[in-house]
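Appendix C. Worked example: Kynurenine formamidase
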Amino acid sequence: MKAKINTFEIDLSKPIDISIPLTNTDENPIAWYIEKPVIEPVVFGDWIGKVSEGKSSTNFNNIFFNPHGHGTHTECLGHITNDFYSINECLKQFFFLAQLITIEPEKIGDDFVITKNQILDVLSGTTEALLIRTLPNQKDKKSRKYSNTNPPYLSEEAAIFIRESKIQHLLIDLPSVDKEHDEGKLLAHKAFWNVKDTLHLNADARLNATITEMIFVSDEIKDGDYILNLQIASFENDASPSKPILYKI
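Step 2, the predicted output written as structure tokens:
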């Protein structure tokens, strides 16, 4: 099946999934000092919500997870504001023109940083969504334990440049656009969403802009332009697990 979005034609039968599935195994990626997700059957006395246990005709699981620490997720500015903003209210459109770029973060002191100049060198034209794949691009990103590893991050200057380039949706294969231990400054988050004061939101803050973290883009997927379908679960929360899908144009 093919569809036309604006003037672009895409083949809906050939999706490119760049999300990381959530599991209750040690293969699940973890960030922010938490344990792996829990997926387990409901138990009522002798009744167990698991067909293989012989006590139920259905599988009936509870799931305990954290969207920020357990895999691919999309967040709105409610992630850093005093007042509540929901990703389910902020994200109202789901198809976007997107550009995938690949960057090897620059060594600055003890950190690896994605800089403005690196993005400027590879970004071509205008786009609604920007996807950043970082090098090295090992497959263990899909199961990596990020806590206390000081992963690469986005410089404040780079985040400002992305915002000023009118990019509404930023997707990255890291657990955060900001430094892991940054004393709560959150410079890249604030710069991208144009949040000047987290206690009193400024009128020009970017309510409909989103950040998606912990994607995985395999090496077989080439840099360039795509159509992005950005889907979330309908959580009234600052963030939701998400399933970004790319389509070749």
